[in-house]
Amino acid sequence: AQSVTQLDSHVSVSEGTPVLLRCNYSSSYSPSLFWYVQHPNKGLQLLLKYTSAATLVKGINGFEAEFKKSETSFHLTKPSAHMSDAAEYFCVVSGGSGTYKYIFGTGTRLKVLA
Amino acid sequence: DAMVIQNPRYQVTQFGKPVTLSCSQTLNHNVMYWYQQKSSQAPKLLFHYYDKDFNNEADTPDNFQSRRPNTSFCFLDIRSPGLGDAAMYLCATSVRVNYEQYFGPGTRLTVT
After folding, report:
1. Mind listing the pLDDT tens digit for each residue in B33-86?
2. CA B16, CA A4: separation in Å to the nearest integer?
3. Does A44 contact B103 at a Cβ distance shorter than 8 Å?
4. Does A31 touch chain B (CB under 8 A)?
5. Do B45 and A95 make contact, defined as CB atoms within 8 angstroms?
6. Would you call B100 and A107 a contact, using CB atoms and an 8 Å cutoff?
7. Cys staple from B88: which of A54, A76, A96, B37, with CB 3.0 to 4.6 Å?
8. What is the C-alpha to C-alpha distance for residues A32 and A48, in angstroms, rounded to an integer?
9. Which residues are B11's β-sheet partners?
């Protein structure tokens, strides 16, 4: 069975400092992995995806993530946080074990301090 | 721009009064999904359509129904809303199952 764990429910950073949101996954097969961002009262926006190509994935708004099979991790990073990055972030695993369904992490709320 | 559109963005209904939420897409995707998201939780899949084939999740209450009259539109019907159905309802689409999903802005449902 697939699962995904977001290791921090809340992360606070100062504007201009690096962002690290951690995600670990479990999958018997080669999974697809995604990061989504959700601003208050909005839908989910796809930040980036990993689908067995390059292990370092670049996304929108300066975000990137590295797929590390040995560590079963897919952490999201950004070199310099902006106030507009404050939002909820979801790590998602899909595609392994013959299932198409999205398995969501519990989310990480990112707070950016001025 | 190609997109997923949900109407209305905010819906207030009374306890027990049927309500319909609407989703349309200009992406021409084969798959359309409906999710329920309660406060501070991850989205929960209710059902999806692959073309005209309807796929219900085992734990989706019978109170929730869906229709997909054509490729572009999909509706969520809540036959008798309860207070526990107050949530954000998200529509999403993908080219096929197992591909990335694109989400609409959601409809926030309030039940009074």
Report:
1. 999 999 989 999 999 999 999 999 999 999 999 999 999 999 999 999 999 999
2. 36
3. yes
4. no
5. no
6. no
7. B37
8. 11
9. B109
Angle at A7 between CA B40 and CA B46, to 5 degrees: 40
Determine the pLDDT at residue A96: 59
Residue of A nearest to B109 (CA): A41
What is the per-residue pLDDT for B96? 85
Output DSSP code: residue A102: -
Contact B42 A106 (CB under 8 A): yes
- Evaluate whether A56 touches A66 at the Cβ level (below 8 Å): yes
For B79-100, the pLDDT digits (tens) are 999 999 999 999 999 998 878 9
Q: For residue B63, give both structure tokens.
A: 């109170």
Over its C-alpha atoms, chain B yields an Rg (Å, rounded) of: 13
B57 neighbors B66 (Cβ within 8 angstroms):
no
Joined together, the tokens standing for residue A2 give 């697939």
Average pLDDT, chain B: 94
Contact B57, B47 (CB under 8 A): yes
Share of chain B above pLDDT 90, in %: 94
Half-sphere exposure of B103 (CA within 13 A, CB side): 25
Provide the token pair at A12.
Answer: 């606070």
